TrEMBL record:
GO terms for cellular component: extracellular region. This is C1q domain-containing protein. Residues 100-237 form the C1q domain. Pfam families: C1q. It comes from Mytilus edulis.
Length: 237
């Protein structure tokens, strides 16, 4: 555009000079115009070359910044993952209920409400934990998984309904190691019994309370504000 304007101006001046009738060397004037035109064209070429080069440099810089931003974002996400894992490890260290490596595992849980239909060979799920040091007792399944080898003491209490008879067992894996009967058949009141079992266990053994598979229960297992059917256990030092 600049070159076209310069050429138009040059032709305009030439016309003025021609019309004025002055003694001017037109060939020399046209030569000067041609040289200046060529100089301007070269300058414009250089300018365009520099503009293209700057555009390319800006594009490269933008891509570099974008790449570095993506790398920074990825590193930030990795840092957050590491922080979350550190928080989990820290909670496990300070909260014994979430760690299976506690030195003295112990638990105590009771039935929140009566078990109104105690079928034979049914695991009694004591669903309300008061103590669960080591987190080895699973309230959803009613199972205590031994966190480390040692000698353990277990106790369970069953409250029968009036005129009820409840047969229960404590089981390690699939082997019963103790049994109990809660008998109120001749009574119009609730009846409570408690039994204790002591056994050396290995890590990974599973302990639970179940109804006797060979005896049918009468009535139901009671539990309420004034009496609790419960299950507890702890390791001996």
């Amino acid at each position: 555009m600049k070159l076209q304007v310069y050429v138009v101006c040059a032709l305009f001046l030439t016309t003025i000079v021609f019309c004025s009738g002055s003694n001017v060397d037109y060939d020399e004037l046209l030569s000067v115009i041609a040289k200046n035109t060529e100089t301007i064209r070269k300058l414009e070429d250089k300018l365009n070359h520099h503009e293209i080069k700057h555009v390319e440099q800006i594009s490269i810089l933008e891509n570099t910044i974008k790449s570095q931003g993506e790398t920074l974002n990825s590193q930030w996400n990795q840092l957050e993952d590491i922080r979350n894992k550190c928080r989990q490890f820290k909670r496990a260290d300070v909260d014994p209920s979430t760690s299976s490596n506690s030195s003295d595992p112990a638990f105590y849980a009771y039935l929140e409400a009566p078990e109104t239909n105690p079928k034979s060979n049914m695991v009694v799920k004591f669903d309300t934990p008061i103590t669960n040091i080591g987190g080895a007792y699973n309230i959803e399944k009613g199972l205590f998984t031994v966190p480390r080898k040692g000698v353990y003491v277990f106790s369970w209490t069953i409250v029968s309904s009036d005129r009820g008879v409840i047969f229960t067992q404590i089981v390690v894996n699939s082997e019963p190691i103790g049994s109990m009967i809660t008998h109120a058949e001749q009574s119009y009141d609730f009846h409570t019994t408690t039994t204790v079992a002591v056994k050396e266990l290995n890590q990974g053994d599973v302990v639970f309370i179940r109804t006797n598979p060979h005896s049918r229960a009468l009535g139901y297992i009671n539990s309420g504000v004034h009496f609790r059917s419960s299950f507890s256990g702890w390791s001996l030092k």
